[in-house]
């Protein structure tokens, strides 16, 4: 067993996990039927180790989280030092130095006048906060009927009941309906499979049509990721976000940039909005803010949105006990400092082309249909027929992803994401410290597995 602070054997951990731990978004029955729960015990840089001592490249940064890489004693130490000084105090009515310093730091890096930072414990809470702020802002400024949210098909914005209304994934919504009313969906920017009637140049017009359909005086906000994760790293066409900004201004809707994944260097800028040159009213973030050494998120709002909350006795009647947790704040400050000192964002800019070229070099394998993404956030879409772009039916996709790819990639030491929430894709989001040798290593594991998938399906 690899080095870990746990005194338990692999067998004991497996047994207890199977009996007591409820994994998220997981088919727990498979483990009851004998499949082994993967247990990760240690990390260092771009690598993690399981309880059997096997090493893996963490080419998903532990779910787009560990931007600075694993095993940073200095970041852990920042949390420990803070714990000794002030282990916890809340941001409900009180402040403390680390959340103040962090709010100022975040505001200094965020685009334009996004100067007001409301801390949360994670991405879903950040989105929830943005949706509630949108509603209350409109109520305070004389538009009480503006309550609806426009989001995009297949987009994932979190699982809490409000965020779920924005999430555009039927399978994640259906078990919990009825949801918060007012979640409306428009086409995403899947340029490989444009919806009928749309080209790359007029995709944003779908938002206008939806606003007109719902009634402009009922729409509070439009929420979008800079690069949409679910579906497989959909990048925006040129001018898309500029047009969305115009639409939001024209219809008095707030523009929420959900950057739970796309901030903190993931796209080669501090924030995804900076990569695509647009100015949102709100950014929601989490994950890379602390490189997930502590759980923390934030909603960053513009000065304009804050104005009505500075008047009279108004207040944002919303909060979370752990928002702005001092330990998480100290960890976030240390993480941002490390990113600056070590020029981590520059590393992404320097090597994103190399990552992309490695993935594009797989285009000779018949199952590889498309390569897309930005920064250290890329996807390969898998197809049955590259000429016609024919995709797989549900059964084929299930067999391909769960019956083969996920296990083969993991078994060969590569953690990435095989996903069929849209059409089947494999996603890559390595820690932002990854250099060319790590990218080469990802490629050397990926190629034979994709070739094996093609052969298994008889594709040529
Ligand atoms: C774009 C986006 N928004 C919101 C969330 C929800 O974040 P969390 O899982 O921290 O609640 C996620 C999670 O991956 C996400 O990718």
List keywords for this structure.
7-stranded mixed β-sheet, 4-stranded mixed β-sheet, binds pyridoxal-5'-phosphate, 2 domains, Aspartate Aminotransferase, domain 1, Aspartate Aminotransferase, domain 2, 460 residues, globular, alpha/beta, 38% helix
Structure summary:
The protein has 460 residues and is α/β, with parallel strands linked by helices.
Rg over C-alpha atoms, rounded to the nearest angstrom:
22 Å
CATH-scheme architecture of the largest domain: 3-Layer(aba) Sandwich
Please give the count of helices: 16
How many β strands by DSSP? 15
The computed structural class is alpha/beta
Roughly what fraction of the amino acids lie in strands?
Answer: 15-25%
Helix content: 25-40%
Taking the sheet with the most strands, its summary is:
7 strands, mixed
Query: What count of structural domains?
Result: 2
In round numbers, the mean pLDDT is 97
User: Termini distance?
Assistant: 42 Å
Which overall shape is indicated by the principal axes computed on the Cα atoms?
globular
Q: What is the topology, as strand order, of the major beta sheet?
A: 4-10-9-8-7-5-6
CATH class of the largest domain: Alpha Beta
Low-confidence stretches: none
CATH superfamily of the largest domain: Type I PLP-dependent aspartate aminotransferase-like (Major domain)
Ligands, ions, cofactors: pyridoxal-5'-phosphate
């Amino acid at each position: 067993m690899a080095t870990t602070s746990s005194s338990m054997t692999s067998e004991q951990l497996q047994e207890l996990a199977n009996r007591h731990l409820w994994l998220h978004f997981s088919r727990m029955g498979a483990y009851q039927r004998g499949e082994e729960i993967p247990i990760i015990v240690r990390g260092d840089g771009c690598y993690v180790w399981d309880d059997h001592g096997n090493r893996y490249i963490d080419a998903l940064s532990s779910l787009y989280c560990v931007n600075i890489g694993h095993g940073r004693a200095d970041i852990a130490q920042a949390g420990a030092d803070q714990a000794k000084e002030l282990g916890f105090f809340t941001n409900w009515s009180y402040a403390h130095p680390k959340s103040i310093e962090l709010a100022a730091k975040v505001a200094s890096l965020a685009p334009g006048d996004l100067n007001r930072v409301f801390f949360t414990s994670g991405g879903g809470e950040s989105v929830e906060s943005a949706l509630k702020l949108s509603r209350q802002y409109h109520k305070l400024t004389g538009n009480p009927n503006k309550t609806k949210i426009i989001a995009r098909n297949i987009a994932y914005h979190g699982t809490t009941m409000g965020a779920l209304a924005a999430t555009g994934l039927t399978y994640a919504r259906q078990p919990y309906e009825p949801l918060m009313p007012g979640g409306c969906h428009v086409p995403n920017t899947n340029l490989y499979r444009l919806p009928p009637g749309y080209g790359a140049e007029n995709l944003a017009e779908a938002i206008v049509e939806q606003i007109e359909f719902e009634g402009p005086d009922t729409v509070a906000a439009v929420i979008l990721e800079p690069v949409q994760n679910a579906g497989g790293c959909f990048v925006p066409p040129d001018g898309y976000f500029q047009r969305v900004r115009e639409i939001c201004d024209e219809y008095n809707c707030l523009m929420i940039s959900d950057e739970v994944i796309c901030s903190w260097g993931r796209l080669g800028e501090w924030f995804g909005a900076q990569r695509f040159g647009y100015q949102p009213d709100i950014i929601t973030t989490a994950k890379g803010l602390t490189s997930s050494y502590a759980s923390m998120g934030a909603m960053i709002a513009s000065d304009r949105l804050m104005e009505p909350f500075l008047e009279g006795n108004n207040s944002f009647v919303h909060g979370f006990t752990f928002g702005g947790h001092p330990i998480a704040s100290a960890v976030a400050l240390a993480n941002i400092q490390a990113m600056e000192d070590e020029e981590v964002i520059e590393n992404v800019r320097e090597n994103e082309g190399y990552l992309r070229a490695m993935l594009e070099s797989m285009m000779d394998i018949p199952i590889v249909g498309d390569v897309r993404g930005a920064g250290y956030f890329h996807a390969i879409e898998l197809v049955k027929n590259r000429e016609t772009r024919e995709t797989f039916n549900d059964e084929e996709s299930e067999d391909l992803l769960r019956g083969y790819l996920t296990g083969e990639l993991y078994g060969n030491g590569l953690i990435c994401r095989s996903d069929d929430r849209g059409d089947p894709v494999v996603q890559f989001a390595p820690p932002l410290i990854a250099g060319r040798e790590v990218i080469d290593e990802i490629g050397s594991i990926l190629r034979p597995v994709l070739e094996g998938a093609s052969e298994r399906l008889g594709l040529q």
